[in-house]
Every structure is written in C-alpha cells, then in structure tokens.
Automatic annotation (TrEMBL), chains A, B:
EC number, as in UniProt: 1.1.1.3
Entry-linked PANTHER family: HOMOSERINE DEHYDROGENASE (PTHR43331:SF1)
Residue ranges of domain ACT in the record: 378-464
Binding-site list for NADPH: K128
Cofactor(s) demanded: a metal cation
Pfam families: ACT, Homoserine_dh, NAD_binding_3
Entry protein name: Homoserine dehydrogenase
Pathway the protein acts in: Amino-acid biosynthesis; L-methionine biosynthesis via de novo pathway; L-homoserine from L-aspartate: step 3/3; Amino-acid biosynthesis; L-threonine biosynthesis; L-threonine from L-aspartate: step 3/5
Function (record text): Catalyzes the conversion of L-aspartate-beta-semialdehyde (L-Asa) to L-homoserine (L-Hse), the third step in the biosynthesis of threonine and methionine from aspartate.
PROSITE patterns per record: ACT, HOMOSER_DHGENASE
Class of this enzyme: oxidoreductase
NCBIfam families with a match to the protein in the record: PRK06349.1
Length: 464, 464
C-alpha cells in the first residue's frame, strides 16, 4: 500500500499531529496485532470492559482494527465488529495511538513496531524474543518518537515484575534476580518430583495435558527462559543484556536419579533464570552473570514451593531485602491482564502527558562468561570401594581451589536388581561457592581418575 | 515565618513556576520530613547513591533540608551536611520539588503535605494512618495542584504492592486481596505455632527481640493492618475506603488451644487483612467487605508459608488469577527502598512531564457491614456426652441456614491433669461459607443450649 493513496492520506489526517491541537475528548485508537489466545482475551476485555477501562484511563479506548493472518475465520466470541479485522497490519499500525503487538517472532513484528512508533503510536508487546534480540533498537525508536514501549507480558505472564523492578526498586540496588520463568519446565520438574517418573514420559504427560507444546524445544531447552532472563537482567542492572549473553542449559538431561538425589539433600530441582551482580576485581569493579540452568534449591527457599506451571521471581535488593512475586506465567487471560495493565498505563500517559521511563543502560556492566559465575556443585560419583579413595577425590577439589562443604559416602554391594556386585561406593559431594570454570574443571579431572567409575550426576545448587 | 520575608521571596523565585521556563539542568530539590529509622535510611541513600539516582531519574536529586523535631543531635552517619537540619518543617516544604513525609501521625503531617502541594511539590509518604483517614483530601489537593502523591511505603514496607494493584492490574478486575500486613503479629502467631506457647509470653519474647513495640496495641489489636487494608481496598476496588469502614479484630484472644486446633485441621492462624468484592443483590449489584481478623488458612495456601515478620499480599483477579507478593513489611532499609522508588518515579515525572495516576474512586461500591461478609467458621464446643447432642447442635446450624462442612467428635473422660471426669465430648464443626451475621447468631444460639457447656473457640477459616 502506498502512503500517498487517498485512504492513507485520510488516515494521516486522523493520526496524532504535534502541530494540531489534540482533541481531548476523542477516544484513543487501539490497534491489535494478532488474535491468538492472548490477543482474543485482550480484544474481549477491550470490548466488554470498555466503561471500566475508560474510567481508569480518563479516555475511552476504541479498538480500531485487529490484524490477523487469515481473514474470514469466525471470531464472533470476541464481540468485535467483523469489519475491524484486517490482514494489512502495516496499514493498521499507521492509524493508532496505541499498538498492541501479539504476533510474536522477529519478523514482521519488529518492522511493525518501528513503523507504529514512527507514526506516533505507543507500543505494548509481549514479545520476549524480539526484546531480547532487538531491545536497544526498539527503545531507541521509542525515545526518538517520544512514545512508550511497555512489555510487562513478556516476562512471567500475569506477574507484575517489569514495573516493580523498573519503578518500585528504582531507588534500590538489585543484587540478584532468580526466576522460575517457564511454566512448562516447572510443571515437568514438579511432576517428576511428585511421581518419580523420568523426563521423557513426564513431557509426554505434560503434552497430553496441554502444558507442553507438540515441539517443546523452546521450553525444555531453556530458550524461552533465557529471553526472559535477558530482559530481567537488563532492567535489574541498567545494562544491555541480549539473549546472546545468556548461558543456557535446558532440563532434558535431568533424570529421575537427579530428582531423587535432590530429595535426599532436602532440595528440589527447578529450571532457574539467574541474574547476578558480582565483584570481579580487587578494586570492587562489578560484572553480571546471566544464566538459565536446572539447579537444586533447598525446600525452605520461597521458590521451592512454586508448583505446577506457576512462575515466580525472587529478587534480592540492597535495601528491600528479599522479595518474591508469584503467579501464572502463561495463558491467554493472565497474559492479557499484563497487556491491558500496560495499555492503561500508556493511555494514561497520552491523557495526562508525559511518558514512562525508557531504556536505562547507564551502568553498562560487563556480562561475564559462564566460567566466571559463582555457584555450588552437587557431584555424585560411582567409585571403587578402596581405602584412600576419598583422599584422592578431595585432592582433586583442593587442586582446583574448590572447597568441599559436605561428603556423603555409601557402600553399594548389589545391583539395582539385587544381584551381588563387587563392592563399590557412591560418593556425593556438595561444594562451597566457587567459579563455574573451577567447578567444571574439577569434574573433568575427577572423571579422569582411575578410581572413579562414573560421574553419575552434576547439578548446581542455588538459593542458599 | 512570613511569606513576605526576603528569604521566602528568594525561595519563591526558585520554586516551580509555570510562567517561567523551567531550568532543565537544575537539580530537583528534595525535602525530608523526619529522620527516624526510615528517614535516616532515605537520607543516606540520597547522599551515597546520588550518581545512580541521577542516572535513573535523568536529573540530580538534591537534599535541601531535613526537618527534625529536635536540633543538635549527632547525625553524622547520614552523610548529610549538618546545616541542612531544621526544626522548621513548615518553611522547608515551601522550597522543594519533592517532599518526603516520614513523621507519621495526622498532625502536623497533613498540614505539611497540603502546604507542600500548594507550593507545587510532589509528595512521597509512608503515612498509612493519614492516608486511611484523609486520603480523599490529600488526593484532591494533589489533583488541584497538578502534583503527585505516592505512598508505596504505606502498605507492606518494601513489597511493591501499591503500584502493581494501581498500574499493573489496571486492565483487570480484582476480586479479592488477602494480606499478611503486619510483621509483629505474624511473628507472634508464627512463634506461637512453632513453640506452642501462649499469646502473652510470645509477645514478651517478640518485644525482647525487637519485633514488637513496648506498647504493642497498634499491632496486636489490628489498627496498623486495618489502615493498610483500607488503602488496598481503595486501590483494588476504585472506591473510597477509610479506616472507619474496616471491621477490625486483633490477635489478643488467639490462644495456644486455637493454634493447636488449627494444626489439627492442617491450617495455621494468621492475622489477615481481607478486601473482597461480593454480589449483594439478585440483579448482580456489588459491594465490598474490608476486614482484619485472625483466621485459619490451609497449609497449602501460599500465605501459610509466610514466616516470622515477613508480609505478603495475595491477590485474586479475574484475568490474572492468583498472584502473591512477598517480602519485608517493615524496617528502615526496606521501607526506605519503597520510599526511594516513589521518589524516583515522581522525579521522572518532573523531568519527562506528566504525572502519575491520581485517586480512582469511580466505582464507588458500597462497603458492607461485617455481618454481610461471607466467611467460614471453625467452632469448638465442649458438650455433654449424651445421645442426641449432635442432632441438637446440627439443628441450630440449620435453623440459621448455615451449612456444616465437617464435624469431628471426641469423647473426653479425664481432665487435663488426668483426673477422671464425667464423660463429655468435644465437638469441632467447620461450616461452609455463610454470612458472618448468620454464623455469629449460630454461635450465640449454641451458647444458649443446655447441652453446650462452653463454646471453646470460634475462628474464621479463609483461603480455601
């Protein structure tokens, strides 16, 4: 479509224009991109709760179009005038005060958002992948055009977390954010914990129950959580963190044995997104570590009781101390709640003047490689039952300057099926905190020892 | 001091003036009223973290005065220029862009805030008593003068809860807010639960540990929680709710026996602030119930695991579902974190233009009397061990249209010290949900029965 077509020209007349006096009674024009689960829930609320939203905003919100991929589907339940559906998203974004982007992915979402901003619209999005990949570009465009870019729905669904970190804690110093950021993986790990079942069969059950996608890769490999961790780290540390900075390990390697080992330790295994501030040199210089991996956390930690598909974000701040935010991390209605909170916020800015805070990247802290992250390891070894084994194992830890917190040794004289075997020992070692590179090198060296038959499992321990 | 004195005239020149062009590089002038625990923590952060705060705000925040009751005390640790201390709060508020009120109480806090606003300052306060008593007056003044009134610190200390309810959930419909809003009472109830000790000795222990004041009335009688519940209800339901609307019962009557009875039920007792939306007539008209009282909640409820002096607020919203916010509800540093988050927010509004949302009272729902609140009762009775007792008791419930969920009967044949007694029975009854008036009338009628020796305890049950 050409910008010079008569239709576009008449749209342009209606678009915000800094030289014309704004009409203070005209409704704010809202364009919705995408009518999937979340988009449908947003459309329904915009339509059915219009009076409440107007009272809270100070102006009516008028849905001026819903961009869909395919026209003609029956969407009568949304309560939206069928004439508002369009397949021309590029045109729609040029004639709105607020654009809600819920189509996901990088293209064409990115171009549509940039075009919307260039045409003067504030943007509300739930697109974590796009923010984690192109956040700075989008922020710069919002800044250039004097519009808002809000994205509460991109992290932990319905849970208010972007606004608390960005606004409520703006006068504090955040040291650590640990989140259960993906509902599918929490459901799977929680079910493995309650049933003792293995990973594969539990994923199949989660798929049958609708908690996991047919292709669960984005969830179980940690991609989804990594994008969210990048966004949280950017906000918490006033530093640009992209998905490429996030160390990522999924839960596909977590076995029923690992879960059982965690139970024996009084722990549960969770897939955690961890954003951490660390002192990196003797002069007190700081860096940050951003990573997603499964880890044991003690049952007494507030995150340990987050069950099923719930999400939670645990924040440690210098003055505020420990905070936790808990709720539903996905689903149409919960995510729509976060989207609409943002819509009301950016609409209030239109009505009352001003705009929300933009990108804050002033601190510009270095993002450390995974090897520099400080963590603790839980290592299970299958070793020969000989005298001196523990001494040799302990020596390997000492050589890497990794300090051992506890060792538990158990002699095994039969197989899992009860057949007698030559005596061997299971050694379970939990370390004190050390750099991941040193811990990882220790495990490699242990695997080389002739007295070590097998490194049965290696898990990080967090939250203590 | 006269407004016409030369000093005042020169201050007035520096004050915000809509006709003069604002100086976009001048620092924002911050006045602090009160240098107690929270005020001192705020002053320290304003001084020591000035660079970070400037980067986040977009302008430097300059502390221009600290109003204290008595001059001359040593406050060197605040890092504040001693010349900034003043006992003339009334003068100080006339020469600031942002006034932080941390003196508490109604007078002179109210007049100082109103004067600050009249002189063009935005106000940040942690004064829950004042907000619960005079919120509408303060909001009206903020609106009249085009300034912000922020008060995150007034509810649940460091926990971001005002902003999530007001902003993040602005596009949702909040049905219920249940909060553990007072750290002292939670500490006491939690300690009673772990130790089995009684109320009086536990309060003494809490006082010795600094968790309870020498005069604990405001906490243990629920006044503090009631003020916070009023604020939460106002925000959640877009309705003016003052402290006078809040039904309030403290924890002084909670006995070791009640705690034990809760344990047998798989519950814990918490002092809860409950703000609830209820349908009040057949046409679907709504009212709200706001109340503070001790209640049993099941161990599986997220609020049950809130230990020691921590606070938490559990929110149920139409789209978002269940959310919980957890953290420290009091203390100098945690509360200062909430204050400074607000300071940065109102400062950003000064820099970027605009102001935050004002009072939202459009829904104007009726606040129901306690008798109309729907709840469940746990009633313990000491009854004669005769046949037909249960039938008579059940009849009383039925006559008041209160439905019984469970009954547990236990025959007692000896005293607590082992002396044989005539057989009698302990009856424990848990009801389904009913109006509090009907439940309360049921208990009164039970007490009149000749087969009931004593109504041993009556506790509400929530959160299921």
């Amino acid at each position: 479509m050409s910008d010079l077509s008569p239709a576009a020209a008449s749209d342009a007349t209606a678009a915000p224009d800094e030289t014309a006096a704004p009409d203070e009674t005209a409704p704010l024009r809202v364009a919705l991109l995408g009518a999937g689960t979340v988009g449908s829930a947003v459309a329904r609320t915009l339509t059915h709760e219009a009076d409440d939203l107007a009272a809270r905003t100070g102006r009516r919100l008028e849905l001026v179009g819903v961009a869909v991929r395919r026209a003609g589907r029956d969407r009568a339940d949304l309560g939206v005038d069928p004439a508002l559906f369009t397949t021309d998203a590029a045109e729609l974004v040029t004639r709105a005060d607020i654009v809600i982007e819920l189509i996901g992915g990088i293209d064409p979402a990115k171009e549509l958002i940039l075009s919307a901003m260039a045409h003067g619209a504030s943007v509300v999005t739930g697109n974590k992948a796009l923010l984690a990949e192109a956040g700075p570009t989008l922020y710069a465009a919002a800044d250039e055009h004097g519009v808002d870019l809000y994205y509460e729905a991109a992290v932990a669904g319905a849970i208010p977390i972007v606004r608390p970190i960005r606004d409520s804690l703006a006068g504090d110093r955040i040291d650590r954010v640990i989140g259960i950021l993906n509902g599918t993986t929490n459901f799977v790990l929680d079910a493995m914990d309650s049933t003792g079942a293995g990973f594969t069969e539990t994923v199949e059950r989660a798929q049958a129950l609708g908690y996991a996608e047919a292709d669960p890769t984005a969830d179980v490999e940690g991609f989804d959580a990594a994008a969210k961790a990048a966004i949280l780290a950017s906000l918490a540390f006033h530093t640009r963190v992209g998905i490429e900075h996030v160390h990522r390990e999924g839960i596909t390697e977590v076995s029923a044995g690992d879960i059982a080992a965690a139970k024996e330790m009084g722990c549960v295994i969770k897939l955690l997104g961890i954003c951490e501030r660390t002192v990196v040199d003797e002069s007190g210089g700081e860096g940050i570590s951003v990573r997603v991996h499964p880890a044991m956390i003690p049952l007494g930690h507030p995150l340990a009781s987050v069950r099923e598909a719930f999400n939670a974000v645990f924040v440690e701040a210098g003055s505020a101390g420990e905070l936790m935010f808990y709720g539903q991390g996905a689903g149409g209605d919960p995510t729509a709640s976060a989207v609409l909170g943002d819509v009301v916020a950016v609409a209030r800015h239109r009505v009352a003047g001003g705009k929300g805070p933009g990108e804050s990247a002033y601190a510009d802290l270095p993002v450390l490689p995974m090897g520099r992250a400080r963590t603790r390891y839980h290592v299970s070894l299958d070793v020969a039952d000989r005298s001196g084994v523990l001494a040799k194992v302990a020596q390997v830890f000492a050589a890497h300057e990794v300090s051992i917190e506890t060792v538990r040794q158990q002699v095994v004289t039969e197989d899992e099926d009860g057949t007698p075997t030559p005596p061997r020992a299971a050694l379970v070692i939990v370390t004190h905190s050390a750099e991941d590179a040193a811990l990882s090198a220790t495990v490699d060296a242990l695997a080389e020892l002739d007295i070590v038959r097998e490194v049965t499992s290696v898990l990080r321990v967090e939250g203590s």
